[in-house]
Specification:
This protein has about 280 residues and is mainly α. It is built from 15 helices and no strands. Helix 1 crosses helix 11. The N and C termini lie far apart (about 40 Å).
Length: about 280
Amino acid sequence: MSIPDKILDGIDRLEPLPITVQKLVVALNSQSMDFNEIAKTIEYDGAITSNILRTANSAAFAGRTRIETARDAVVRLGTVTLLDLVLIGYLKSIKIAAPLYDLTEDDLWLHGATASLAVKAIVKETRNRKIPEAANIAALIHDIGKLIMVRYLKVDAATVLNLCEEKGLTFVEAESDLIGCNHAEVGGAIAHKWSFPEPITLAIERHHEAEPKDPDLMLDVVVLANLTAKTVGVGLGAAGMNYRADIAGAKTRTGLTAEGFERVCIQTAAWVQDLKYSYGYRN
């Protein structure tokens, strides 16, 4: 299904990624990283520097010595964690309400952040070392397509929900029926424009496929991360649980049991509370 020109034009007009993110994406693609160059870029942004120093010294990453400089924080955290942190800041900066999905301006970025945390919980639970480290990046931006859809389309949630009821469709299917494409396909196009690695782009584009051909662990984990975020009540919106994905297959391939999924949800919910608190949310 092709993406309408109005949406493609919206992708072209999307705010450029911050230079720090651009450099980290290049590092992710090349599997190499110039720590000094990244550190120099980060040092010009006080908010980013403060955030990565706090994270580098947190219980999850802290080593024997306290980190005091941006360069040392970059070395300790690595490309993927750095990109995750900086992308969250970017998503927060471009947040808007999403009436098409019945989501508030904070729901979109928080749903992605929750999915990213869910990936960590899934890796911790399954101990599956084959899960790509960059899966949390794919999970973080898996719904980025919704940002463009709500900016350039005058469709509300009620219209989509009425079509779901009339034709017995999932929300994503109704989205495609009304618009000619869905947010997952648009998200994949955005990730491609931003030059993210192909496995991340494809996981975003395919995370709503009910019967994916040649599924991989990147896609499987994004599917499960999305499910986890919705299960803990973050970013349900108008679609709720009215969607299809290869959930059973993803659980089997990752080694996530039913009991394990419950533990993943409990762990993710706890981490989300910490995340919300760190960004000043008290509810």
